[in-house]
């Protein structure tokens, strides 16, 4: 069973820890660099990419501004196609629904397609508590699950593991939960993928219940869409008798034709391919083909909270491509674990606080600061989410939520600065003191007392020997 | 009761829809301007389709209409056990016709031959809607080799054209090369759970 992010330290501590891991930084630099280059190449091929991005953003905005109407239409069309529709206000309610369906079929295991939303709600842990094993079938998720590890990237969750580590995990863990890895397993990626194929094949063939997410839910037809590479998704959508799909309410698109925009934007932004190997669409129960009992769980879990935030609302356009992670200078150095959430990187730095609200906990409140505001994420985003502006707005919300109580060093310094700068007499006095200090050589020195933290990772600037106003008075600006 | 109003039986549904309406209260909800880019409207380039399919390391065999059975037969050389859906339209030597085989029975079969509903030149994609000649979804998934026969006139220019072509189909599968993963150090490996080999037999009219 994979771990959870509960109890993770706030970003600055977690990031400092991650930065000391040289192997992690090497893996990340290689991985993000590779995907960045692939993405740029296939995005460059598309004539009118900017128009596509604008179309993607506009469709999602239309969805969000009429979300109630689209959800009701989606529900009606799903039911007409033979699906049972459930609604869940929060994670616990969604987990109860899924577990209840699985238990009604008296199964001890369910198969899972990689899905961010089921990680968000902690479904595997909830099912385990009810005595049901949830097997991840995506290769990277399998690596994370077998290694009792945490995902570190939206698209390639085991990006922090290298092939030698993966071989060790497979040899050690596969036998305990099913078909063991071949004894002569090497660290050749093709052999490792083959071991996963053999290990999971027996699970696919006997599966009764599968759980998926959905990349898109089409309101005007009731079709759900899963975009994937390995075929584990197709296995889960096709072979079991019962299919349960957990879908965030922001995943709706109004019409089938809207898919043309997203099926172009998503693969190119995500894996840097013209098209991902497999995309499946299905509409409720398809007679004679695939699961004959189909459930859809429509999940809120903070999404309406984010929807109410006028600046942050656009974060709900996100199609989970992870392009923003791969271009982010902060993510590239710290990796995903430091963000303490299933949604790491720039999108996680806004999505987590928006879903949970500022002032919820120290860890989430630290995320809007996990950015240099360089804007690379905004440039890469296929649905034009202005992540830097949302970060700035969330910082203000975090400060507001934490007003009152004992002020920190930064707040005290700002207060002192406001008092000083508010009076010409005090500014003159401060300038005189700074001028005196400026005669000392401060290179490499550290501030004492509350200023200590500020100079731990910065050089103290050398104040000018003569204050500007004294210089102006002396020379009139001519020398 | 108008659609979307409280049904009185599902408190979670009522709560979520009410939360959505609260969140949007005071927001301008006027419909947005047209958002689709104009369709490219260019003719499909069959050579581009072949090149793009091969980019995924799938195999492409080009043949004339009277060579289909032969080309499919060659693609199946040495394959232990072949299954075909009803309505294929030509004979495959020694193939079993699917009559609702179980997953384990399908797993014992090495190859499958199907038709497609459409194809996309720009992305090297074949699209199945699982009607006659294409088979149910499991058929083209569990066997390790998928031979897919595509007629040149089924090849469309781009994704928007294909989306339009299969609108209204209850189930579609879009296939771009063999199953693949890049989950280990981002090195692409062809062949995970879906067919590890994809052979596209492209049927072109005699010019």
TrEMBL record, chain B:
Domain LUD span(s) in chain numbering: 112-203
Taxonomic placement: Bacteria, Bacillati, Actinomycetota, Actinomycetes, Propionibacteriales
SUPFAM superfamilies with a match to the protein in the record: NagB/RpiA/CoA transferase-like
Signal peptide region: none
InterPro entries xrefs: FTHF_cligase-like_sf, LUD_dom, NagB/RpiA_transferase-like
The protein's name in its UniProt record: Lactate utilization protein C
């Amino acid at each position: 069973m994979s771990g959870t992010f509960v109890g993770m330290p706030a970003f600055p501590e977690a990031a400092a820890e991650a930065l000391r891991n040289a192997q992690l930084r090497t893996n990340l630099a290689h991985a993000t660099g590779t995907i960045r280059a692939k993405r740029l190449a296939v995005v460059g091929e598309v004539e009118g990419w900017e128009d596509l991005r604008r179309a993607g953003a506009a469709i999602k905005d239309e969805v969000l501004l009429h979300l109630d109407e689209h959800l009701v239409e989606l529900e009606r069309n799903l039911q007409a196609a033979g699906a049972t529709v459930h609604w869940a206000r929060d994670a616990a309610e969604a987990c109860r629904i899924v577990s209840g369906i699985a238990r009604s079929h008296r199964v001890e295991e369910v198969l899972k397609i990689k899905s961010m939303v089921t990680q968000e709600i902690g479904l595997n842990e909830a099912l385990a508590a009810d005595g049901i094993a949830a097997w991840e079938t995506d290769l990277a998720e399998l690596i994370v699950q077998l290694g009792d590890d945490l995902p570190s990237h939206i698209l390639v969750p085991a990006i922090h593991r290298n092939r030698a580590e993966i071989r060790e995990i497979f040899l050690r863990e596969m036998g305990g939960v099913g078909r063991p890895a071949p004894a002569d397993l090497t660290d050749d990626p093709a052999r490792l993928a083959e071991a996963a194929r053999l290990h999971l094949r027996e699970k696919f063939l006997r599966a009764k219940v599968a759980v998926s997410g959905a990349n898109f839910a089409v309101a005007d037809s009731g079709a759900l869409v899963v975009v994937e590479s390995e075929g584990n998704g197709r296995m889960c959508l096709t072979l079991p008798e019962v299919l349960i799909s957990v879908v965030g309410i922001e995943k709706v698109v109004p019409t089938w034709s809207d898919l043309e925009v997203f099926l172009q934007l998503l693969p190119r932004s995500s894996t840097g391919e013209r098209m991902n190997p497999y995309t499946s669409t299905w509409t409720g129960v398809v007679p004679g083909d695939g699961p004959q009992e189909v459930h859809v769980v429509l999940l809120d879990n903070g999404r309406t909270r984010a929807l109410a935030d006028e600046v942050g609302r656009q974060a709900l356009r996100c199609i989970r491509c992870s392009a923003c992670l791969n271009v982010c200078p902060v993510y590239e150095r710290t990796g995903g674990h430091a963000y303490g959430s299933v949604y790491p990187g720039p999108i996680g730095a806004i999505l987590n606080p928006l879903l949970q609200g500022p002032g919820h906990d120290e860890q989430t409140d630290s995320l809007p600061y996990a950015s240099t505001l360089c804007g690379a994420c905004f440039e890469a985003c296929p649905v034009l989410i202005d992540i830097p502006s949302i970060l700035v707005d969330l910082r203000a919300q975090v400060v507001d939520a934490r007003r009152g109580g004992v002020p920190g060093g930064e707040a005290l310094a700002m207060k002192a600065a406001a008092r000083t700068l508010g009076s010409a007499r005090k500014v003159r006095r401060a300038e005189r003191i700074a001028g005196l200090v400026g005669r000392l050589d401060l290179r490499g020195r550290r501030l004492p007392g509350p200023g200590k933290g500020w100079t731990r990772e910065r050089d103290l600037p050398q104040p000018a020997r003569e204050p500007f106003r004294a210089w102006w008075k002396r020379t009139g600006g001519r020398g | 009761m108008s659609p979307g109003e409280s049904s009185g039986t599902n408190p979670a549904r009522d709560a979520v829809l009410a939360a959505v309406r609260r969140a949007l209260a005071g927001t301008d909800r006027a419909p947005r301007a047209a958002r689709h880019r104009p369709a490219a409207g260019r003719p499909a380039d069959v050579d581009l389709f072949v090149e793009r399919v091969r980019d995924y390391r799938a195999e492409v065999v080009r043949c004339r209409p009277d060579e289909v059975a032969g080309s499919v037969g060659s693609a199946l050389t040495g394959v232990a056990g072949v299954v075909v859906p009803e309505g294929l339209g030509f004979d495959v030597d020694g193939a079993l016709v699917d009559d609702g085989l179980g997953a384990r029975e399908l797993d014992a079969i090495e190859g499958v031959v199907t038709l497609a509903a459409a194809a996309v030149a720009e992305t090297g994609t074949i699209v199945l809607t699982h009607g006659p000649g294409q088979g149910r979804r499991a058929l083209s998934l569990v066997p390790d080799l998928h031979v897919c026969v595509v007629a040149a006139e089924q090849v469309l220019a781009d994704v928007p054209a294909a989306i339009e072509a299969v609108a209204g189909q209850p189930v579609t599968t879009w296939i771009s090369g063999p199953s693949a993963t890049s989950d280990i150090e981002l090195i692409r490996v062809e062949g995970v759970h879906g067919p590890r080999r994809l052979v596209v037999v492209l049927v072109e009219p005699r010019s």
